[in-house]
Design brief:
The protein is mostly beta strands and 337 residues long. It contains 1 helix and 24 strands. A 4-stranded antiparallel β-sheet has the order 3-2-1-24.
């Protein structure tokens, strides 16, 4: 399948083959700024994304932030070792913190959060890092794609647990308080082929603007997916949108609109494109043939930022695009709500 995720591929390949070396976590002491503009300018971090840095010839995964014009690109968290993978950053409702998943081995993953601020030099920094959820190693599961809710009053993070051990094949849509504690399982799904190989899972949960629902991609079989809509409190299945082909990076629009954006490809020889759908059963997805990935809505739904070699914006439901920045476009992006 064609892929536009060139940063992710490079990150994963380097992590798998690099020698292990201890590094720094929160990067207050080495922000690794790029494309920062004037030295006296102050950052206004609004986009968080996945990036990386090379320290003493060893590559480390990072979580980064930047302004909406692509400036002040700054690593605010650096993996503790070259074998650690950090993915899917998501802003808190207030825009003062970021949560992301970290994976140190096949059966060791956690949800971390850190507060994001701008220091006296105008540089974004992270502080007060903490672990919201880290399953026991005996659980044999991996955490997938955390998503912070829309309203501060809800105060929850949605995520997926994908089981690896004796429960191989089981995928759970879960929520947890942003302060940690017990996990609520909203929905569970398990499907394997005749050889016992996993062929299905949930990915990319995303909250509705009022936090009453959570949409998630459910892989039914290879090459066929369903966007499922669940009640965020009871886990009841409310709506479903079956889609033949590859689906990824689902995100619900902000308050004032009720649309889902995601990327889609019908087959391995076709580039990923941005698609839209109403979050209701029977809706017909649409596209304006804008190729790219990592789509994320602006706070007022006036634009969607995405990546296609460069950092781009598109007016939703149109083919009207603009180039934001040609350098350091980021990946797995999330815009402040």
């Amino acid at each position: 399948m064609k892929t536009i995720f060139f940063i992710t591929s490079a990150v994963l390949a380097t992590i798998l083959f690099s020698a292990c070396k201890q590094g720094s976590n929160l990067t207050d002491n080495m922000p690794m700024r790029t494309n920062a503009g004037s030295g006296s300018s102050t950052a206004h971090p609004a986009i968080t994304y996945v990036s990386g840095t090379t320290l003493k010839k060893i590559f480390y995964n990072t979580i980064a932030v930047m302004d909406t014009d692509g400036t002040h690109q700054t690593n605010v968290y650096t993996a503790s070792s070259s074998s650690e993978t950090d993915m899917n950053p998501t802003w808190s409702p207030s825009g003062g913190s970021i949560a992301w998943k970290t994976i140190s081995s096949a059966v060791s993953s956690s949800i971390l959060t850190a507060e994001i601020s701008v220091n006296s030099s105008g540089t974004p920094v992270a502080s007060n890092q903490r672990t919201v959820y880290s399953p026991s190693s005996s659980d044999s599961l991996s955490i997938i794609t955390p998503a912070w809710c829309t309203s501060s009053a809800t105060a929850k993070i949605a995520f997926v647990r994908q089981y690896i051990g004796t429960n191989l094949g089981k995928s759970e849509l879960c929520t947890i308080s942003e302060s940690g504690g017990s996990v609520t399982v909203l929905a569970s799904y398990s499907k394997k082929n005749s050889a016992g190989t996993v062929i299905s899972h949930y990915t990319y949960p995303t909250w509705s603007p009022d936090d009453s629902k959570i949409a998630v991609i459910r892989e039914d079989t290879i090459g066929h997916n369903t966007i499922m809509i669940f009640d965020a409190s009871t886990g009841a299945a409310l709506d479903s949108i079956p889609i033949s082909g590859g689906v990824s990076e689902l995100e619900w629009s902000r308050t004032g609109m009720n649309k889902l954006v995601y990327i889609y490809t019908p087959n391995s020889s076709t580039a990923w494109s941005l698609y839209y759908a109403d979050p209701t059963t029977g809706s017909t997805p649409s596209t304006n043939s804008v190729t790219g990935g990592a789509p994320t809505w602006s706070p007022n739904n006036s634009s969607i930022m995405y990546v296609n070699s460069s950092l781009m914006k598109v007016i939703p439901l149109t083919a009207t695009t603009t180039t934001v920045s040609s350098s350091g476009p980021g990946n797995k992006m999330n815009w402040k709500k």
